[in-house]
Write a structure and sequence with these properties.
May be involved in calcium-dependent ubiquitination and subsequent proteasomal degradation of target proteins. Probably serves as a molecular bridge in ubiquitin E3 complexes. Participates in the ubiquitin-mediated degradation of beta-catenin (CTNNB1). Its main location: cytoplasm. It is found in: Cytoplasm; Nucleus. With about 220 residues, this protein is an alpha+beta fold. The protein has 3 domains: about 50 residues, no CATH class; about 80 residues, Immunoglobulin-like (Sandwich), CATH 2.60.40; about 55 residues, no CATH class. The chain is built from 5 helices and 7 strands; from the N terminus they run ααβββββββααα. The strands form 2 sheets. A 4-stranded antiparallel β-sheet has the order 1-2-7-6, with no helix packed on it. It has a 3-stranded antiparallel β-sheet with strand order 3-4-5, with no helix packed on it. It is elongated, with a radius of gyration of 46 Å. The protein starts with a helix and ends in an 11-residue tail after the last helix. The C terminus is likely disordered.
Amino acid sequence: MAEEFALDLEELRHLHEIAKRPRILSLLTSEIRNLEKLSSEATSTARASQIPIPAPIATGTTVSPSPARSYSPLASFSWDQDNDKVKIYVSLEGVDETKIESEFKPNSFDVKFHDIQGKNYRFAVVKLHKDIVPENCKILVKPKRVIITLVKASKANWLDLHFKEDKLKPAMDKEKDPMAGIMDLMKNMYEDGDEEMKKTIAKAWTDARTGKTADPLSSYR
């Protein structure tokens, strides 16, 4: 590109030397200036492209990402409670308060013990039996154990640290509606019975709906 500009400039200058009319001379002068500017820019670009890019200098040190910590389960723990608090006793020696990482939430907690005699330990409950007050919970370090105090959100008695479904609830629901179990039994007997059984159960259903009998099974006992 720079060579083309040089040839064009040479020819324009030659024309400028032989031109006589003022307008032609002015046009040629303007075009020569434009080409000189373009030629200069093209030359600068060509020189810049020839400058070698310095290779990155190796520092001799490689930074590797720190490995993820691994945690061991706790050897043993116990717990008790009163109306206001739940206390968890963790058997662990050599604990440094500065190496404990804890997180308390309304229905869970997570406590990590770092670099305890070369090991990391973790104790967490993802869903507690009842809610707690996170900002009031605390950790106390003793020479041979750690005490985690959970402050109850209500004065309810805890059956366990972990949340468990109330197994008594389905049974209580059935007690509230004893007829539901009887009707299910009659439906099963109707589906599996012979024609005589089906007639008897159908009559019992009809009598129960019209109020003729209080016991839907009395008609075929």
